[in-house]
C-alpha cells in the first residue's frame, strides 16, 4: 500500500472507511459538488473489479467501478478504456480524459489538510483525527 507523507505540506484524500491513502490533492482536476464528484488525474490504492458488471460505457469511453484496495468499498469509477483523444465537457471545463483518470465520491473520502483529518465533503473535523497513524485500518 502506498502512503503519502503526513506533513503540513502534503494534502491528500483517504478512504473514509479504512483510511487508506487514495489521492494527492495536486491530482485534483476539478470538483463538481452538484454532481457530488471529484475528477482526479490518478489515484493510488484503488483497483477496478474483474466482474464485467463493473464495466460500462460513457460515450466513447469504458468506465469501471473503482474500489479501495484495502477495504473494497466502492469509491467512484475509473476510466478503463479511452480512445486516443477524448475531450469531455463538464460545466465550463473541457477535460482531456485518459485511462487511469478517476471520478471519486467525496462522501466516501476523508481529507488530510496538513494538520488534521476532515470529512472531504463538508470539511468538518473527524473527531478521532488525532490518531497517530490514521492509515491503519
TrEMBL record:
Record-linked Pfam families: Yippee-Mis18
Domain Yippee: 11-113
Protein origin, superkingdom: Eukaryota
Keywords of the record: Metal-binding, Zinc
GO molecular function: metal ion binding
Membership in a protein family: Belongs to the yippee family.
Matching PANTHER family: PROTEIN YIPPEE-LIKE CG15309-RELATED
Name by which UniProt lists this protein: Protein yippee-like
